[in-house]
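Quick one, tokens below:
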């Protein structure tokens, strides 16, 4: 089971990191950095290096970091790339462009772009946390990785709100719910995701590690730069995760209440709605919870204490891009039929309205037999 395996890996890395930390390790006066390992700048021969403790260096070069994490990313890449590519292909060529379909196309695009970034991270970790691709690519990869994550979260919130409006307020929703409106919302989401993560391109992200041949990307940053990132990530958590997540909880809660009150006929639609919320909670919450908990204990942080579990939580978040196609697309019998006909050369069908998990026959609060499109 993909979800259980991913969560097990995260808990294993969390236990390893916390139990392997020296409680007597000397702290720096300004300890705000659970997300990465803070380093001291050392200048030698006009070249700036970052120096870190031996324990932090051991975390960087441990088996779990340079073997388990890249292996996990490889698995996500091998599953997520073809799954999202196939979903995007069918959604863009064989499915009528309903509002929900537009959101799903953009979600599949975000997931696919994230999968395309993974080979760079896989190479980085398998090379022993060494980044050979240059500063510009490091900045772009860091921005794109976080940008795609928050783009997916916001799109999932839009999908849940779209379903809520279609189920609970069908007549009001029909007055503005259109493909053009959905495309406009998606365009805004992409712009917001870029603006959220653009600050990561302002500061230098790759540094050579002192007395080694390693060049690190985003994992070790100067203390002063991390202090600026502290306030940035607090805002990012509030706007990029907490707000969309609360919207999802509200929307999915009302949708579930309507579906469950309509009898066994809509049990599958209710299960899929619940599964969407569970998936987002399981895959995206750990990294943000780690940040919030640790930022609330500013005097108790040890350098590098949360580096390994945070890296594990980011790896866990990529599972959502792997699972999305199966949860949101392939659960539809009509969608599976389209895929099989395309793969096995059956005759072409005209584009029809498929009922995905976002477009299944569902009741509304006022007209139980109404099927929103």
């Amino acid at each position: 089971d993909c979800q259980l395996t991913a969560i097990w890996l995260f808990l294993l890395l969390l236990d390893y990191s916390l139990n392997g930390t020296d409680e007597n390790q000397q702290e720096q006066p300004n300890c705000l950095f659970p997300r990465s390992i803070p380093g001291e700048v050392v200048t030698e021969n006009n070249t700036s290096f970052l120096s870190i403790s031996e324990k932090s260096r051991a975390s960087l070069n441990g088996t779990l970091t340079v073997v388990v994490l890249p292996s996990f990313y490889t698995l996500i890449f091998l599953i997520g790339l073809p799954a999202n590519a196939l979903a995007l292909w069918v959604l863009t060529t064989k499915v009528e462009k309903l509002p929900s379909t537009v959101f799903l196309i953009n979600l599949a695009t975000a997931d696919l772009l994230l999968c395309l970034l993974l080979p760079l991270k896989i190479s980085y970790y398998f090379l022993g946390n060494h980044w050979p691709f240059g500063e510009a690519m490091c900045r772009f990869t860091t921005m794109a990785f976080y940008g795609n994550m928050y783009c997916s979260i916001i799109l999932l919130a839009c999908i849940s709100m779209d379903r809520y409006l279609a189920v609970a307020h069908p007549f009001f929703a029909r007055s503005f719910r259109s493909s053009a409106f959905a495309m406009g919302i998606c365009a805004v989401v992409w712009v917001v995701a870029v603006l959220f993560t653009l600050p990561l391109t302002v500061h230098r992200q790759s540094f050579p590690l002192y007395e080694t041949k390693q060049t690190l990307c985003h994992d070790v940053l100067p203390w002063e730069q991390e202090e600026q990132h502290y306030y940035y990530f607090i805002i990012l958590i509030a706007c990029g995760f907490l707000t969309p997540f609360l919207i999802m909880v509200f929307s999915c809660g009302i949708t579930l209440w309507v579906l469950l009150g309509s009898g066994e006929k809509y049990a599958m639609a209710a299960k899929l709605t619940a599964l969407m919320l569970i998936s987002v909670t399981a895959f995206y919450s750990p990294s943000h919870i780690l940040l919030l908990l640790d930022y609330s204990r500013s005097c108790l942080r040890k350098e590098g204490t949360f580096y390994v579990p945070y890296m594990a939580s980011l790896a866990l978040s990529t599972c959502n891009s792997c699972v999305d196609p199966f949860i949101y697309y392939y659960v539809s019998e009509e969608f599976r039929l389209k895929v099989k006909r395309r793969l096995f050369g059956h005759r072409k069908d005209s584009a029809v309205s498929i009922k995905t998990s976002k477009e299944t026959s569902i009741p509304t609060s006022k007209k139980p037999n109404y099927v929103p499109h």
